[in-house]
Amino acid sequence: MIRVLLVDDQPLIRSGFRALLDIEDDIEVVGEAADGGEGLALAREHLPDVVLLDIQMPVVDGIEATRRIAADPALAGVHVVVLTNYGLDEYVFNALRAGAAGFLVKDIEPDYLLHAVRVAARGDALLAPSITRKLIDRYVTQPIDAVAGTKLDGLTNREREAVALVAHGLTNDQIAERMVISPLTAKTHVNRAMTKLHARDRAQLVVLAYESGLVAPRTS
């Protein structure tokens, strides 16, 4: 059973999402909150698999709530998917930097909402690396983050190569082909890099690859 927590200051949004999720045999809504602070408390209480979290809320906004969830070792298995009205924007980018696994626009089709919850619950990055790259190309700032660069020092050369390919939007199968290794070995390189870098998913690998200077943003 996939346990979901809804965090949004609009009751109609919460009730609409709940109505869609509750009819599924494999999904259970374990709680609702109207701001990020309350959402964080409920996340600690219920330990959901997925938190659907509005970016813009009073008291504690979604970006700060995401950051606190990502920083709490007790919530390591909780996957945050942020909700937005606007699609690709700086709020979404900052949420990814804070630890979100991806984002959904609030007028999402019901079938994709259900798909997204299941993908996030598996621990997969909901947001395609290519979309993450578009965000970073638009919003990443210079100079290069020296701290982020230092984090990469613990990677092997092959792990660094795999992270760079993730940042370019390649799947594990495509990484395997590019590196002339098996898909299982490619997956192992990516997973080891995620562990060493304390990345919650592939989306965070992409962010770190750009901010460390391992991959350069496009200039046009």
UniProtKB/TrEMBL annotation:
This is Response regulator transcription factor. PANTHER family: TRANSCRIPTIONAL REGULATORY PROTEIN NARL-RELATED, TWO-COMPONENT RESPONSE REGULATOR. It comes from Georgenia daeguensis. The lineage of its organism: Bacteria, Bacillati, Actinomycetota, Actinomycetes, Micrococcales. The modification 4-aspartylphosphate is found at residue 54. Keywords: DNA-binding, Phosphoprotein, Transcription, Transcription regulation. Residues 148-213 form the HTH luxR-type domain. Gene3D superfamilies: 3.40.50.2300. Residues 3-121 form the Response regulatory domain.
